[in-house]
Structures are given as C-alpha cells and as structure tokens.
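Marked as duplicate of an earlier ticket. Keeping the data here for the record.
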Amino acid sequence: MDRVLTIGVYGWSPERWVAALHDARCDLVVDIRARRGVRGPEHAFANSKRLQAIVAEAGLRYAHLPVLAPSRATRDAQVAADAASKTAKRDRALLGDAFVAAYQAEVVDAVDWQPIIAELTGATPALLCVERLPAACHRSIVAAEIAQRAGCPVVDLVP
C-alpha cells in the first residue's frame, strides 16, 4: 500500500464521489461504519446496498470492517460534546477529547491490526465514513494508525 485515502459522504454527489476515488487511483472502498445508512435523500447513495452497487459499477472493490466502528457509547460521547458546544454533527470540525480517548481504548488499542493491514496490502484503500471533514470523523484516527503501521502517507479526499 503506497498510501491510505479517506473519504466521507457529506458534501459529495455520487458522481463527484466516484470521480474523486478514480482520480486518486483508489481500488478498494473500506466502509468503517457500524450502521451503513444515511438519512435524507441527498446522501442516500451511501446507504449500504446502493453504495455497494455504485462501487461495483465504478469497478472498485468494497469491504466492510465494522470492527473499526466506534461503539454506541463512544458515539454518545461525541453527541454529548456536540450538544455542549452547540455544534451540529454536519458542522463539526474536530472530534471531542472524550470520543478520541474512548475510541483509542476500545478500537485502536484493542484491534488486531495485522489482518487488517494484510487485507489492505497491495491496494489503494479509501476509508469511508460520513463526515465531510476527516478530523471530525474516526476515519482520521484509523487512517493515521494504518499509515503508521504500513509506513505510508494519508491522503484525505474532501469535496
């Protein structure tokens, strides 16, 4: 793996989303969401079955790694931080400290990274979640961990 890409859903049309993946020479979309649904018609393309069809039609492979998704309790820590700062989820620019600490403990420090890195080796993977900005999403933490272990850079695709 020469780099690890990240991409969200918010802010993209399906056509621009696929074009960005092609332009970045991605060949594997790695969905790291626990729940693979998005509310509202604007981003319905990211609902599991539709997304997998779009990815296949674009000639890309798809993998779902729910082991990298935050738990409900960890997501709730971010919801509380957003509520305290009066920040809407789609307007969030950074993850809260409580989320980062909980995610580090429950996923980063607990997951067996060897099979994950092995699955990604030889690919140009794009880690997928929904937030527009990578720093507002757990995909930034996952990407940094993979990049450090694989000795490659992270490239964030943003609309």
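See parent ticket for discussion. The chain has one domain: 4-157.
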